[in-house]
Design brief:
Blueprint (H helix, E strand, L loop, with lengths): L1 E2 L10 H14 L4 E5 L9 E5 H15 L6 E4 L6 H13 L2 E4 L19 E4 L1 H9 L1 H8 L4 E4 L6 H6 L7 E7 L4 E7 L9 E3 L4 E4 L4 E5 L8 E11 L2 E7 L4 E3 L2 E3 L1 H14 L6 E7 L5 E8 L6 H14 L8 E5 L12 H8 L5
Parallel strand pairs: 4-5, 4-6, 6-7, 7-8, 18-19
Antiparallel strand pairs: 1-5, 2-3, 8-9, 9-10, 10-14, 11-12, 12-13, 13-14, 15-16, 17-18
Helix pairs in contact: 1-3, 2-3, 7-8
Length: about 350
């Protein structure tokens, strides 16, 4: 479905009807909108956002990436959540020519992206992987874009390596429903790639006594949003994301940041040129209080040689308490509605007596 400036089409599907309904509400001047958090770090909850917050976020994105009226953009993220609905707002506020497609692992499926000369798009990591699996068809489209955003989940080493094939600038984003989408970005390809996030213009950041990021911006209605994301604050505009305070594993009195363990494991898999999803989770039980468990998405499981390599590398780089005590292979990971791995639900399914 194509939504051009000044034109709303007649919807052909329920999903298109939902998108058109939102656009009509926005164009009518509706002042407040209720959205829901993704549920990736807790139970989904409703959040009321004002029109002024959403407008501020949309215009900041436009300024950051040089978007202009008439630019072509792809809206392929779920419009029930902030990342998807904000693409609609950007289209309406900035005068973009939007192609709206229902979320799918292949966001180019169902329309001829090669004919659309897209200027801007946002994807989740799974979609980005799928597009790069079909590089012959996708790269000519991706390379022409002004900017490509990847959000919704962390960008691992495998994806960071693959996006080097894209000529257009690709950015990992940081944000949440409470901040009305992204408030910081980092480039992940080309000569400007970095592991440091840069806060967008007008966004003020700081940390609390836990080292967790807090945010104040027009998009937050100038109210401070306190997160549970542990960061290294480099200066008033830049930070390095370390992990979540509420995901820290306490094993034998030693605090372990799962994201750090995952980073080490990703390095082992990169040496094998292996692209597979996995995550580390703390499961209660045993003398250690919590045990480190590695969940992998692989219907065949991992060979002992790979598991031994992972354990030895984690032991050498982090320490013995961070070594996974168990490795569980699942054919398919359960996901949240926004496409993130539903870690809590997976752990509860595998360890119902402990979670």
């Amino acid at each position: 479905m194509r939504i051009a400036p000044g034109y709303l089409p007649e919807p052909q599907t329920d999903y298109e009807a939902k998108a058109v309904h939102f656009c009509r509400a926005w164009l009518s001047g509706q002042s407040f909108f209720t959205l829901h958090t993704s549920g990736s770090t807790g139970a989904p909850k409703p959040i009321i956002l004002s029109r002024s917050q959403m407008r501020a976020s949309a215009h900041l994105t436009g300024q950051t990436f040089g978007l202009r009226a008439g630019d072509r953009a792809l809206a392929c993220l779920n419009i029930d959540y902030i990342a998807g609905v904000m693409m609609l707002v950007r289209g309406l506020e900035l005068g973009l020519d939007l192609t709206v497609v229902e979320p799918a692992s292949n966001p180019f499926q169902g329309f001829d992206a090669s004919l659309d000369a897209l200027d801007f798009a946002a994807f989740v990591p799974l979609q980005m992987h799928t597009l790069l699996d079909q590089a012959e068809r996708s790269l000519p489209v991706l390379n022409r874009m002004k900017a490509i955003l990847v959000g919704g989940a962390a960008v691992d080493q495998a994806l960071a390596s693959r996006v080097q094939a894209i000529e257009a600038p690709v950015f990992s984003t940081y944000g949440m429903t409470e901040t009305v989408s992204h408030i910081a970005v980092r480039r992940i390809n080309g000569p400007g790639q970095t592991d440091v996030f840069r806060a967008l213009n007008g966004v003020e950041i700081g940390v609390d006594n836990r080292g967790c990021l807090n945010i104040n911006a027009a998009a937050t209605d100038f109210q401070t949003v306190q997160t549970n994301d542990v960061v290294e604050l480099i200066d008033p505009r830049h930070f390095r994301l370390l992990g979540r305070a509420d995901s820290i594993i306490n094993s034998g009195g030693v605090k372990i940041q799962p994201e750090r363990v995952e980073e080490v494991i990703a390095g082992v898999l990169a040496r094998e040129h292996l692209q597979t999803r996995f995550f580390i989770y703390g499961v209660p039980g045993g003398r250690l209080g919590q045990q480190v468990v590695l969940f992998v998405e692989d219907e065949n499981g991992w060979p002992e040689s790979r598991i031994d390599a992972v354990k030895n590398t984690v032991r050498q780089k982090i320490g013995p308490y961070a070594v996974p005590r168990k490795v569980l292979a699942l054919p398919v990971f359960q996901e949240t509605p926004t496409g993130k791995i539903d870690k809590k639900r997976i752990a509860a399914t595998c360890f119902p007596e402990k979670m």
